[in-house]
Amino acid sequence: MSFKGLRVLALESRRAEEMATLIRKQSGEPFVAPSMREVPLEQHDEAFAFATRLLRGEFDCIILLTGVGTRLLWKTLLTRYSEQELKAALSKITVVVRGPKPSAALREIGLVPSVQVPEPNTWRELLAIMRDRPENRIALQEYGKSNADLIAGLRALGKDVSPVHIYGWDLPEDTRPLREAAAKLIAGGFDVVLLTTSMQIVNLMRIAGEEGIEQQVREALQSAFVGSIGPTTTEALEDYGLKADFEPSHPKMGLLVNEAAAKQR
């Protein structure tokens, strides 16, 4: 089995040429748009500003929206602060998790959530939970995409909300190929989309938001065959209301391409 001439979008950056070669070997027509560049942890100013305020006792509550973002936030903070002082500060406030994935990430750290939002774990259930809660000074962990409706809803309840944006990777210096990929995607230009890291979908949707085509990109991804390299990337898709059609037997780029090709009819 092979792609048999199908048009394949990949968002690989560092190994872009290798990805294109792998797709061609499976008789696919590749379009590889680099989607990200690494952001050194020490450049996460919002995360460190949050930690400073947390240690001063300026928050009553933190809301953790994603597992990926929770892990990266913790990893970032540990570059500057001790695990003991961070855990002590977090134990003094209410920790709200949107669903099972940030809950699992929090437990990996050795902490237990105070409040878990019920299924289907959307911002609407989160807002309903917070409506009757006494906490007013809230830090909101966001990963890649800001939820304006949630922030507006919390502020309408009289909450003082401080978003904490956390990125492991930022947009590439040259975003033109990624913008072209988004345009081609909504024009029906791709049959298959292959993702090798969670930040690829985050940055694609970030560009789509800047272009005002986020909903169209979401619909195009729902129509395409989407291959995810593994659970973390699949989780990121789910954060946007999307699903992966396929994960490879092992989280390797070559297996992702080859096994995705084998699944095409």
Structural overview:
The chain has 265 residues and is α/β, with parallel strands linked by helices. It has 2 domains: 123 residues, 3-Layer(aba) Sandwich (Rossmann fold), CATH 3.40.50; 127 residues, 3-Layer(aba) Sandwich (Rossmann fold), CATH 3.40.50.10090. The strands form 3 sheets. A 5-stranded parallel beta sheet has the order 6-5-4-7-8, with helices on both faces. Strands 2-1-10-11 form a 4-stranded parallel beta sheet, with helices on both faces. Strand 7, helix 7 and strand 8 form a beta-alpha-beta unit. The radius of gyration is 20 Å and the shape is elongated. The protein starts with 6 loop residues before the first strand and ends with a helix.
List keywords for this structure.
Rossmann fold, 5-stranded parallel beta sheet, elongated, 4-stranded parallel beta sheet, alpha/beta, 265 residues, 2 domains
| CATH architecture name of the largest domain | 3-Layer(aba) Sandwich
Mean pLDDT score, rounded?
A: 93
Shape by Cα distribution: elongated
Strands of the widest sheet, in order across it, are: 6-5-4-7-8
Number of domains: 2
The stretches of 5 or more residues where confidence is low (pLDDT under 50) are none
Helix content: 40-55%
Q: Count the DSSP helices.
A: 12
Number of strands: 11
Rg (C-alpha, Å) = 20 Å
Assess the beta-strand content as a share of residues.
Answer: 15-25%
Instruction: Report how far apart the termini are.
Output: 8 Å
